[in-house]
Amino acid sequence: MAQAPGLSYRPSMGREKLMEIVVHKLHQRMNSFIDEAVKEKIVRTLHQESEIEKLGLDIGKFLCEREGWNIYEPGHKLNKKLDMEIKNIKSGKAKYKKIDL
After folding, report:
1. 3-state secondary structure the chain
2. 33 and 22 Cβ atoms separated by less than 8 Å
3. Which residues contact 94 (CB under 8 A, 6 or more apart)?
4. pLDDT per residue over 45-93, tens digit each?
5. Rg, Å, the chain Cα set
6. Of the residues 20, 33, 36, 92, which has the fewest C-beta atoms closer than 10 A?
7. Over 70: is that where the pLDDT of 101 sits?
8. What pLDDT score was predicted for residue 91?
9. Cβ-contact 21, 46 below 8 angstroms
10. Rounded CA gap, 100 and 55, in Å?
11. Cα–Cα dist 68/93, whole Å
12. CA 49: distance to chain centroid?
């Protein structure tokens, strides 16, 4: 069974300083410490992103309720019109302008 290639890691604080903290003060193996730190960072980052998305949806919902807005999916005709306008703007045939819907 072939082993997966290893990852190269160069700590910004220096190898000796990291070894001193992890092995001598925290009494952990280096690989275990790095593995746990990476997992913790991934979970924290993913959780933070989902919280931000949820907050954005809540704010949007609040504004719609407060202002009495109704948001609909654009229909086929509107999608076609928007696509044509975007194509014209990208090709340089038209400049950006407000589209009457």
Report:
1. CCCCCCCCCCCCCCHHHHHHHHHHHCCCCHHHHHHHHHHHHHHHHHHHHHHHHHHHHHHHHHHHHHHCCCCCCCCHHHHHHHHHHHHHHHHCCCCCCCCCC
2. yes
3. 85, 88
4. 888 878 888 888 899 889 989 998 888 777 888 889 888 888 888 888 8
5. 26
6. 92
7. no
8. 87
9. no
10. 31
11. 37
12. 6
Q: Whole-model pTM?
A: 0.44
Determine the pLDDT at residue 54.
85
Amino acid letter for position 72: Y
- Residue with token string 């220096």: 14
> Hunting for tokens 């999608």 — which residue is that?
79
Which pair of tokens denotes residue 97? 């302008």
Separation CA 54–CA 48 (nearest Å): 10
Q: How far apart are CA 19 and CA 29, in angstroms?
A: 9
Q: What share of the chain in percent tops pLDDT 90?
A: 8
Which tokens in the block code for residue 59? 């704010």
